[in-house]
Structure formats: C-alpha cells, structure tokens
Amino acid sequence: MIESNLEVSHVWFFLPSYPLGQTVLDDLLISLGQDRTLWAPQAEPDGLCRLQPVSEGQLPNLALSTFLPLKKLLLPPREAVWTHVAGQFSAIEVPAPFAVVGVPLCDLQAIWYLDQVFADDESYRARRAQSLLVGMSCEPGADCRCDAQLMPVAGDVFIGQERVWAISSIGDALLRETGFSASVSDVPLPWPEGTAEKRQNLSEEQFYSALDASIWAEEGKRCLSCGACSIVCPTCYCFDMQDEAAVDGTVTRHRVWDNCFFAEHGEVAGGHDFRPDRAARLRFRMEHKFFGFGALRGQNSCVGCDRCRKICPVDVDLDRIAERLIEEAAS
Ligand code: SF4
Ligand code: SF4
Q: pTM for this structure?
C-alpha cells in the first residue's frame, strides 16, 4: 500500500506558517536531501532553465520557472502502466523518493489540477506519493498571469522570504521535526502582485457564441501544429495507450504523451476526424484549457505560467485570442 500525500488543502490562503530562521531553514534543506534525490531548477549555459538533480549546495533561494514543467517527473512522456507476463500482472514500478525544491506557485496549482485529473490513476499516484514538493517565492516575469483565486495549490512546503508554510500534513510534520515551531494560520501565501489583473476573463457564453469567428482561421493559418505549447504546458495531459505484445506472450501497455495539435489526435476508427484542421485544433485546446472537461468542467486550467507564449514560434497567444473574442462579443 502506497502512502499518499495527495490530500489537497481547500483552505487556499490560511495554511499553517512558521517564522523563517536561517538555521532551521538550513536544517530543513539538509533533511530534504537525506533520503531523497533532490531536484531543483538550474539556469543553464544555453539560457534555458531546467530541473536537474542537485546537491544541497545547489538549492535555489528563489523559485524559477523551468522550460519544461514538473509534470514530466510525474507523467513521463512514455511509461509502462502494466505488464502481463505468465498470467500475472506485474506490480507498478515505484520510483525512489524525490524532492523538487524551488517550485513557483503557478506550478503548485498545476500539480493540484493534475492531482484531480489523475486522482484514480495508480501509476500517477505512485509517482506523486514519492514526491515532496517545496515551493518558493519567485520573481514574476513581465507576462506572468498567475492568480491566487484560480485554484488551490498542491505540494508540501512553501518557503517565502520571512515565513515558511506547511501545505500538506507531511510538510507540516517535516517542518516540526526540523525545529519550526509556533505556527500561525492567518498569514496568506505570498502571491505575486499585479499578475492576475493581466488575465482575460472569457466567459463560456462568449466562447461558444464565437465558434465560427474568423480568428480561428486566422490564427490556425499561422499555427504550425508543432505541439510545443502543449508539451511545455504544466496542465496539458493528453495521452495515448500503446500495447506491445512480445513473442513470449508478455504484453506491456504504455502510456505515451499525445498532443491535441497533432493531426491524428481527433481521428477515430473509420477515418473520421473531429478536428481535421489547425483552426479546429487550436479552438479545441482553448476550450479544454479555459473551460475544462468531465469532472473538472468549468475549471480554467491555465495557471498563467507564460510557457506557451515563450515557446510558440509564430506568436500564437490564447490570451490575445480571448481578448479579441471578448471585444467582438461587446461590439
Ligand atoms: S500560460 Fe500557457 S503553458 Fe502556462 S498554463 Fe496557461 S496555457 Fe499552459
Ligand atoms: S506552439 Fe504555436 S505553432 Fe506550435 S502548436 Fe502551439 S500554437 Fe501552434
């Protein structure tokens, strides 16, 4: 039985928090690495920031937004979700415990979203249960659009400039064991200021009444369908299942990342394609991102991290599309 730290605090702002002293912070960072592999964002010579395995001495003081999001540690691009051999299903491969230190608040929201999507997924839960996520304050970029009100944060501990917050009970136990004491729960998490105001509040009504708007064809014509925006998005999770049967009868099911911009994504048996052109794929991504599906219907999952805008080679911007749809609805 895998112990889970998948609990979610629905108290968005009023988590237990402790005054931050340098000595206990140092002790906390040392204790994080005792039984776990440490990962942290590292700025690299090519100008990109990536998560890398690090030693305690390389841990950051501030969160950094990585080019590829943390989801890649929890949802690998290709993973075996089960193997059937000699009449038995093999046990899921459980990764060694690891901690990710220096996660920005928007990415902690993204993990909360994935926790909901994969709440019943054994493989995701196994990876997630082995993870300890430590958020840190960040310096928001000019185009960051994070919003404290969007959804709760997941994770275990958040280190601010003057306080440290316990996000999960595992995080709280860790803080207490390390020597943090005298918790208070009325200090909100330190969200960046001025970022939420940059978001576009496109309503479902405005979106669905603009399904034939000319902007889809205009932006779709520029889109290369490369899928980069979806790959770097911390809340995109489309996947495909691929079964492989070996000559000895072993069958392995792999989960492999898919991408709603790819031509085959909307194709079904018989050759019908629900989204045969780029305009339809772009509109579909926006619908999924802003309005959710299934149990998460109505939940905007764009945490405002700005990765998609930075990566897009032709400057497609969902918020700019939303802005225009809002303007056209008002005219
Ligand atoms: S800004 Fe782009 S990459 Fe970031 S969460 Fe929103 S849609 Fe995804
Ligand atoms: S990154 Fe830009 S060009 Fe590539 S699929 Fe996304 S919107 Fe299209």
A: 0.93
